[in-house]
Amino acid sequence: MPKTYTNPVYPYRRSPDQDTASAVHHPVIIVGAGPCGLAAGLDLALQGVPSVILDDNNTVSIGSRAICFAKRTLEIIDRYGCAGRMLDKGITWQLGKVFFQGDMVYEFNLLPDTRQKMPAFINLQQYYFEEYMVDRVTAVEAVDLRWKNRVSDVLTDAGGTRIQVETPEGGYAMSCDYLLVADGANSPIRAQLGLESRGQVFQDRFLIADVVMKADLPTERRFWFDPPFHRNQSALLHRQADDVWRIDLQLGWEADPEEELREEKIRPRLQAMLGEGVEFELEWASVYTFQCRKMDDFIDRRVIFMGDAAHQVSPFGARGANGGIQGVENLSWKLARILRGAAPAALLQTYNSERQHGAAENILHSTRATDFISPKNAISRVFRDETLRLAEHYAFARTLVNSGRLSTACSYPDSPLNTAESADFDSELCAGSAPVDAPVSIGGAPAWLINQLGNRFVLMVNVDLAERADLLAQLHALQQLPDLHLLPVSAGGAAPALTGFGSTLVDHSGLLRQRYDLQPGRAYLFRPDQIVSARWDRLDQHAVTAAMRRALGFDLENAA
Q1: Do the Cβ atoms of 533 and 546 come closer than 8 Å?
Q2: Of 373, 369, 95, residue with least CA distance to 227
Q3: pLDDT score of 497
Q4: Once rounded to an integer, what is the mean pLDDT over residues 43-61?
Q5: Which of 85, 89, 102, 224 is the least crowded, having the fewest Cβ atoms under 10 Å away?
Q6: What is the pLDDT of residue 293?
Q7: Residue 216 pLDDT
Q8: How confident is the model over 422-431, as pLDDT tens digits?
């Protein structure tokens, strides 16, 4: 098979911890240098918390694996300083087409309003994603990444965690306040602690293949139900970087995985799909049986599970890596503030409750997609096929077609960290919502709202009031709160910019005010993970202080 990518080999380096007789203590140890482990190290570093990442391998993922990275993930990765390289290398897309048998049923646009910094999706092989993250981690002093370090034993209790690590030069012990586990769907640490990830195994098999070819095809997602080239099954086509194309072919439960992985078996299937005259080379292939499952609790004493170790979904909808990264962002700011004494330990339980909600949402969408793609009986098949026929002509039927509801930003409408609404807003961005970007300017230079949020609490206020005296007094008082950044917003020209509160965002286009219904005097409070925490019709310093305390979990501590 040809290789468009050569896996880097990272060196094993002896750590000073290995020369210490007693276990060296670290605030946070992360197990697994995949997408979630690397993201956790970078996010914690931005919050001022050092960490050690341990990985039993010495390279990035073999094969492209996850390829679709959603807008919300790109916004998070941009905070880490990695999105630029991903965007430069990846394939940007927002259009999808659905086919039934030989006909196109309909097409959809995932981001009709492109006035946001990040695109709807990019396609990029997981090994590039990990390589760029490794490069960034290596440049961050607060993250110590150790290759060929395998965790062989874990002991945890309410006071902390002790681990045994094996290396090419022997073993050594470490301890930490919190152990973050991102060691994959078959998590050895989860098994060692006697914990389970429970759910559903789907009785179907899929061939996933990466092929290298020059093809004059548009950059879009194409999904076929019962196509002429693969009757009674489904097929999916995505373009990736380096002229690599991802092809998914449904095989059926009876298919023999070993037989289906033989190139002489794969090639005719792909040739039938691509056409007899199309030349291609097979780069990587795998046969999967999909599962949707999760742990009942992502926290076991001082061990916290993330990514596939905590929850697993089928790939339809690109909810695995994207959901995992959102989970990391949810966890990191909470853990950082607990470690530095700015929040009670009770805050950590909201990682479990909020991300249980996120995982359940992803599993629900993923299960429904898999059930629609793989009908389990004749009646289900009739329903699906008739829905597809109707969808070609009627918009209502298109909402029933499910080839994978693509990953979107997770919201937490029922989070105990939210502050209740006190006014009617003509915007759905209520407490618990992920942010929506908008173009702005700062000091005359173009900028984006999304880049002003994150890593700390942010209070966004429309300062275009005719009478500002009370507003200025409130802002001066709030300026004294630790961990809070003030973000004045003006239409530009409506009122002079404020001084003493940092740079004013100028909303020349009016999109920011429109998307947030940010009328003069209104305010939004964002959490350090950019999630909306509260919003008010009129700014009140006492309400903001109370909302911050609530978002930090102090109300949970009092309730307990």
Answers
A1: no
A2: 373
A3: 57
A4: 97
A5: 102
A6: 93
A7: 83
A8: 889 999 999 9
Q: What is the mean pLDDT of residues 112-137?
A: 94
Torsion of CA 528, 530, 532, 536, to 10 degrees: 70
Token match 């681990």: residue?
163
Residue 317, pLDDT score: 78
CATH 3.40.30.10 location in the chain: 439-559
Q: Write down the pLDDT at residue 498.
A: 65
| Number of residues in the chain | 560
At CA 286, angle to CA 234 and CA 95, rounded to 5?
A: 45
Which of 3.40.190.10, 3.30.450.40, 3.30.70.1400, 3.40.30.10 is the CATH number of 439-559? Answer: 3.40.30.10
What was the pLDDT predicted at 404? 87
Q: What's residue 509's pLDDT?
A: 93
**408-413: long-range pairs with CB below 8 Å, 24+:** 408/70, 408/72, 409/70, 409/71, 409/72, 409/326, 409/434, 410/72, 410/323, 410/326, 410/357, 410/358, 410/361, 410/434, 411/531, 412/354, 412/357, 412/358, 412/531
pLDDT exceeds cutoff 80 at 37: yes
| Averaged pLDDT score across all residues of the chain | 93
Kindly indicate the confidence band of residue 496, based on its pLDDT and cuts at 50, 70 and 90: low
Given this model, what pLDDT does residue 181 score? 98
Q: Say if CB 230 and CB 272 are below 8 A apart.
A: yes
The tokens of 269 are what?
């299937």
Determine which helix (DSSP H) or strand (DSSP E) holds 155, and give its type and residue range.
strand 150-157
Question: What is the DSSP secondary-structure string of 108-148?
Answer: EES-S---SSS-SEEE--HHHHHHHHHHHHHH-TTEEEEES
Q: How many CB atoms lie within 10 A of CB 67?
A: 26
Residue 321 contacts residue 69 (beta carbons within 8 Å) = yes
Angle subtended at Cα 214 by Cα 209 and Cα 215, rounded to the nearest 5 degrees = 85
Task: Give the C-alpha separation, 304 to 158, whole Å.
Answer: 12
Q: May I ask the CATH architecture of the domain 16-89+124-196+296-369?
A: 3-Layer(bba) Sandwich (3.50)
Higher pLDDT, 122 or 289: 122
Q: What is the CA radius of gyration of the chain?
A: 25
